[in-house]
Design goal:
CATH architecture of one domain: 3-Layer(aba) Sandwich
Largest sheet: 6 strands, mixed
Radius of gyration: 17 Å
Shape: globular
Distance between the termini: 34 Å
Strand content: 25-35%
CATH class of one domain: Alpha Beta
Structural class: alpha/beta
Strand order of the largest sheet: 6-7-8-3-9-10
Number of strands: 10
Bound molecules: adenosine-5'-triphosphate
Amino acid sequence: MNALRAEDIGVRFGGVVALHDVSLEIRPGEIVGLIGANGAGKSTLINVMSGFQRPTTGGVWLGDRALLKLSPHMVARAGVVRTFQGVRLFGELTIAENVAAVAAVMGSPGFATKELLAAVGLSGDFDRKAATLSYSDQRKLAIARALALEPGFLLLDEPAAGMSPQEAEQLGVALKELVERRGIGLLLVEHNMDLVMSVCPRLVVLDVGRVIATGPSATVRADPKVRAAYLGGVPHGTA
Ligand SMILES: Nc1ncnc2c1ncn2[C@@H]1O[C@H](COP(=O)(O)OP(=O)(O)OP(=O)(O)O)[C@@H](O)[C@H]1O
């Protein structure tokens, strides 16, 4: 599997420059953290890389395949799958059905449903309706469902939002295992800096639509520009 690259991405919403000349590469088997203050452009970049938002400038490439002209569905088929900040599950379907339905829609043989659910740390009764799950378990189910598409690359938009520190830590362990076992490339957009620092060897920092730092996580975290733009304002975590 080739690298996933966003190159020189620009996105404008009327007068708002959401992204300006942003480039980012994720290699197979790598976890990249994408951090920045609210409104920095993180979700917009995920939207562009997953085919949900057409950029004003730039391109998205999976190896030498251009993804920009593809629909979100086709981007997913090409191997780039995302989750959403707001969980979007089939509430009336059971936990197991949520995963199986997605695999079926894609015509994918799918991994064993139980294995996927276990991989994200969900256990217990998989015949419960998804709507009855706690918010954090719904987020885990959303990741399991994304994995049913057998992605080469997974773009996670704030997967630990609403989780306790312990749950976020468990999620981190699960994500690292997924990457190691399946060789998936992972982009992690997350405000929980404990989680980011524990799973991401490399960080990219956005500030008002521009990349202000990129590199090894410890170096980036210590960068005064990053502390001024973002980490100084983080109310919790190891920032
Ligand atoms: N559909 C849209 N129409 C107009 N402006 C938008 C739209 N989507 C995003 N924006 C603006 O683009 C900028 C980047 O937003 P984005 O949601 O990508 O930030 P973010 O880093 O994901 O923030 P958060 O951490 O709060 O999720 C913000 O100024 C936002 O208001």
